[in-house]
Amino acid sequence: MRRTSDGRADRETFLSRYGPWAVVTGGAEGMGAAFAEELAGCGSSLCLVDRQADKLAATAKRLENEYGVSVRTVSGDLSVPDTVEALFRETQALDVGMVVSCAAFGQVGPFLDADESDLLRAVDVNVRVPLRLAHHYGRSLKARGRGGMVLLASDAAYHGSPFCANYAATKSFSLVLGESLWYELRSAGVDVMSFVPGPTNTPGFRRASPKLKEGQRVPGVMLPSEVAAAAIESLGAGPSARPNRRLAAETFFATRVLDRKRAVTRMGDRLSVALRPTDGRNATPRAKDEENR
User: Fold this and answer.
1) For residue 123, is it within any domain?
2) pLDDT tens digits along 47-71
3) Does the N-terminal peptide bond of residue 110 adopt cis geometry, omega within 30 degrees of 0?
4) SS3 179
């Protein structure tokens, strides 16, 4: 896709294929807001969904003012089916050409220490929501003969991931669903892609790294705007993608070089160390909740 001087996709080319409206879940801040801004910069009007009503309204107003696009919002918890129904009603009369499933919920820590309600909430947000979005909007995109869909996955989705077992399992669903629909819908002119970010300076990431500031660049950690731009650039090229060659090489190593036993052990050892108390007295990993944007 042609790029403009600011690095974004050429507006005319983008809108002819993926416009005029885009749906982004988790659009109030972090990764979701970055996708919303990338799409607004390409000229697309937006329907943003998030449970953080105040931040959602602020993001919508800012994007309208800065990019001159229309922005609608749906405020609600995506683990509740009524929120998805409200989104479908809000976009019923809109010509939606792009869908980005970004909202997610996860828990880090021993699987058996987690509350069952939190495990099921992750399934609702990370599995049921992208499933419903793909089925609902996939039909309309196929009928119009063009469009795009991006399902956010995780590098934890490539193999077993101890201490984030449920989150990894739910993200494997998005990875496989997106890759499968890439094949099913490409002949209809619809580009579907699973996108797998690496470490990204989002609110969720900063909660685990309190010294990291918003917008701060550190080695090995991308900014949300960089991830969103890389995803839009990759759309249409294949069934799944990573933001850069370094992360693609890491995926190749973990999935093609290491056997499954070594890959799972490597991930478990890393997270086990990361979850140890700082005083070092007890090496038992601690459970903690985390919104993943």
Assistant:
1) yes
2) 999 999 999 999 999 999 999 999 9
3) no
4) helix
